[in-house]
Design a protein that fits this description.
The protein is an alpha/beta fold and about 270 residues long. It has two domains: about 220 residues, TIM Barrel (Alpha-Beta Barrel); about 45 residues, no CATH class. The chain contains twelve helices and ten strands. The strands form two sheets. It has an eight-stranded parallel beta sheet. A two-stranded antiparallel ribbon has the order 9-10. Strand 3, helix 3 and strand 4 form a beta-alpha-beta unit. Helix 9 runs parallel beside helix 10. The protein is globular. The chain starts with 6 loop residues before the first strand and ends with a helix. About 40% of the residues are buried.
């Protein structure tokens, strides 16, 4: 998967008329959902919709969220993902062990994006991040709060969720995988809160957020876009490094070395 994933937009697997619209909405990635968005009696039909869409649109590239490993639909979901080249990666919900990731890899051979959304998943963060084939982690904090009995939209909830976000970032960095994605903001009309969350997780080091509506995309993209001042600083750092060939120099009275140069290149990549 591409390292830049500011937005990953869910689209229900039982709404095939929305697949193309989601892919054209401007998200960095689209996830066709076979899990929460699809009623139990529509699981097989949703798989058929994905298969038909992939066959009819061989140029389309997207991810699929399977049902969790404990459900009777999991194995059939994996076979679907294995069979279609347009499915670039498998989003694994309620991930709690490397063995679950291993089963996805064994059947599909594709990259895995585990969603951590339970207490067991949190305690297995290091194991999940190091599992073969894991591209990055994602945070499913709505289910997590149900599991822990946490009251949403309270100071206590913010304390817990930020603690887990920190653990997720550290596990990802230690394992050398791509930066994680934060969870969905359920009120897609509340762009002010979404912008604040996006700015916070951006500053923490997250790559982006999971999304449930196209209206959320522009808000998140704007939050992750470096300011003109940041871009100008990064441009000057990179230009000075290339001009001098030095790995350590001063700019505006401040010391610049390899980590700062790498940060400047990252800022320029985001600005583009």
């Amino acid at each position: 998967m591409q390292p830049s994933m500011r937005t990953a937009l869910f689209v229900p697997g039982n709404r095939p008329e929305r697949f193309s619209k989601a892919l054209d909405a401007g998200a960095d990635a689209v996830i066709i959902d076979l899990e929460d968005a699809v009623p139990q009696d529509a699981k097989a039909a949703a798989r058929d919709h994905v298969a038909q869409f992939s066959a009819q649109h061989p140029e389309a590239r997207f991810l699929v969220r399977t049902n969790s490993a404990e459900t009777p639909w999991f194995e059939d979901d994996l076979k679907l993902c294995q069979a279609h080249a347009g499915i670039e990666a498998v989003v694994l919900p309620k991930a709690e062990s490397a063995a679950q990731v291993g089963r996805v890899r064994e059947v599909t051979g594709k990259a895995v994006l585990p969603i951590v959304e339970s207490a067991k998943g949190v305690l297995a963060l290091d194991e999940l991040a190091r599992a073969e084939g894991v591209a990055r982690l994602a945070f499913g904090y709505l289910d997590l709060m149900l599991d822990t009995g946490t009251r949403p939209d309270t100071p206590g909830a913010r304390l817990l969720l930020d603690h887990i976000r920190c653990r997720m970032l550290l596990a990802s960095a230690a394992a050398g995988i791509q930066a994680p994605l934060d969870g969905v903001h359920p009120d897609f009309r509340d762009t002010e809160t979404l912008a604040a969350i996006a700015a916070q997780v951006r500053d923490m080091g997250f790559a982006g957020l999971l999304c449930i509506h196209p209206l959320q995309l522009a808000v998140i993209h704007e939050a992750f876009r470096p300011s003109e001042q940041e871009s100008e600083w990064a441009r000057r750092v990179v230009e000075e490094h290339e001009r001098t060939g030095s790995a350590a120099f001063q700019l505006d009275g401040k010391m610049v070395d390899a980590p700062v140069i790498a940060l400047a290149r990252r800022v320029l990549a985001l600005a583009r």
